[in-house]
Amino acid sequence: MTLSLGWLSGLFAGLFSAHVLQTLCFPYFWRDIFFLLKVVRYGARLELSKLTSSVRTVLDRFVQQARRIPDKPFVIYDGRVHTYRDVELRSNRLANVFLEAVKLRKGECVALLMNNEPDFLCAWFGLAKVGCSVAFLNTNIKSKALLHCFHCCGARTLIVGSDLVECLDGILSSLLEDNIQVWAMKSQSEHPQVLSLLDKIDAASDQPVPAVLRAITSLKSPTLYIFTSGTTGLPKAAVITHLQSLKAAAGFWAFGATEDDVMYIPLPLYHSAASLIGIGGTIELGATCVLKKKFSASQFWNDCRKHDVTVFQYIGELCRYLCNQPKTAKDQVHKVRMGVGNGLRQDVWREFHSRFGNIKMCEVYGSTEGNLCFMNHIGRIGTVGRSNFFYRLLFKYDLVKYDMVKDEPVTDPYGFYQRVEKGETGLLLSKVSTMSPFFGYAGSKQLTERKLKRNVFVKGDAYFNTGDLMAEDQEGFICFRDRVGDTFRWKGENVATTEVTETLGLVDFIQEVNVYGVEVQGHEGRAGMAAVIARPGLVLDGRKLFEHVTRDIPAYARPLFIRLQEVMEMTSTFKQQKFQLVQSGFNPSTISDPLYVLDYQQESYIPLTDSIYRSILAGERKL
């Protein structure tokens, strides 16, 4: 008896000691394990479906939910409720129109240029039901960039929202010359060669088209093309497979959302966050989403209270806008318990918590086309995700040393890259493998190849280059530091400096341009700035430059600042030097070159004075 008691007390003492040791040395062990098991279980289910005939897509899941919960609200838009049945039947009508009037066939690609509205979803699902892949066009892109998007994804048909038809002014003739059908979400069209859809939808059957049309044999077949800016200038069509869509649709679920949640989606559907994670995640759960045409900081919390929102999607800039709103007594009167997004700065994160309550902010890191995803399931402020021994077994990534002045990775004497130490900042590379494939971009193998780094650590290996500088601390928490190369982020959009450079280069008085992003106090990302050299004998014309920029460049990509130089600095490899320009910023008191700022009221680029500079830092001047 004494022996048994001694054995039991020893066992309890051992277990208690192990628990204390685990708590002190590995405080996140069990939370990591449970989260990873949840994700792995979902991934295993997808892998198993690839080996069987039960290949299920996000659309299949939607059809299933429409049968299971037909009367449940799926989308609430502008105060009107659209149930799962409503969207199912209307997408059926569209599918029938696509087959009979538009005469689309399985395997074709169709471009969609629409703002956030229920018919965006109905058109998307209707196209998928007839077996078409869909290219989501960014509503900010214009002229040459818009034409380029058709060529790279091979779309022969365009569906445009009723409020965006005027965006085709200037390129409609080019579209028609290329034999591209243009259909508008209108009952009648003012242009004889722009065809109307709404009248045909009203007359169409709401019976489902044959399911065989949407059937697929491989989860790796493309379903969407989502355009992303990069170092090549013009937008790139990232290939989104059914596998990627299904993985993204599990995001809300992985963070603990349920079918009882109401999601608030104020982000544009043409981006993967709103469409793949937001809409896909709502469908996966059988939940309800409140879709906003455009984010409004003044309406945000009223919308959340009105519709009992519990989960919202964000980008860091969105949360800053909310914090900048006047304080009210109702700031913490809401049911929001969780936010899912990316790009949230530490200071804004803390202020958001202090102001609006202890809402769980779930940061997600991953690009549209990337093969790696980090999820901050712990909720540590200032981090984009968390890694551990088990995660590294499944997903191979590395942080390598990067020379910011030369704008290239550091190599050893044998030409291989060098890993950074824990806590150091390095370029994030993700190994391309069967477990983590990279599907690349449509229309050009060269674009896909440029995103890869080969022979990184050994001959023959291949890594996806994220273009992001990150740091991983001793506990495995990962922090975003900066972007490298020819892309920066502003207003929640990636800005391709090459594209802006080419557009500015068309101005008659500009000889050379170097576009880059600069940090602005109190703002996420980097504001566009261009160092320019004027042609001999010509001077900078602020009004003419303003007209050119506002006509041909999307609002988020326009250079807010101009630096007029006499000589453009170059690197040793004859690339334009950006590092020093980025570091020097836009302070007129420390820069001897003439500086100008974009002024919408005067419709010109005007001299950047010390007083204007101070008003920008104080947040008094809107950028």
What do these coordinates show?
- It holds the Pfam family AMP-binding_C.
- An eight-stranded mixed sheet has the order 2-1-11-10-12-13-14-15. A seven-stranded mixed sheet has the order 7-6-5-3-4-8-9, with helices on both faces.
- The chain is 33% helix and 23% strand.
- Helix 3 packs across helix 4 and helix 13 packs across helix 14.
- It is an alpha/beta fold and 623 residues long.
- The protein has four domains: 173 residues, Rossmann fold (3-Layer(aba) Sandwich), CATH 3.40.50; 120 residues, Rossmann fold (3-Layer(aba) Sandwich); 94 residues, Luciferase, Domain 3 (Luciferase, domain 3, Roll); 131 residues, ANL, C-terminal domain (GMP Synthetase, Chain A, domain 3, 2-Layer Sandwich).
Termini separation: 79 Å
Computed Rg = 26 Å
Judged by helices, strands and strand pairing, the structural class is: alpha/beta
Poorly predicted tracts of residues: 15-25
Strand content: 15-25%
Q: Tell me the count of domains.
A: 4
Widest β-sheet, arrangement of strands: 2-1-11-10-12-13-14-15
- Per CATH, the class of the largest domain reads Alpha Beta
Q: Largest sheet, described in full?
A: 8 strands, mixed
Number of helices: 20
Shape: globular
Helix content: 25-40%
Mean pLDDT: 88
> How many beta-strand elements?
30
CATH architecture of the largest domain: 3-Layer(aba) Sandwich
CATH topology type of the largest domain: Rossmann fold
Organism: Cyclopterus lumpus
Catalytic activity: a very long-chain fatty acid + ATP + CoA = a very long-chain fatty acyl-CoA + AMP + diphosphate; tetracosanoate + ATP + CoA = tetracosanoyl-CoA + AMP + diphosphate; a long-chain fatty acid + ATP + CoA = a long-chain fatty acyl-CoA + AMP + diphosphate
Subcellular location: Cell membrane
GO biological process, one term: long-chain fatty acid import into cell
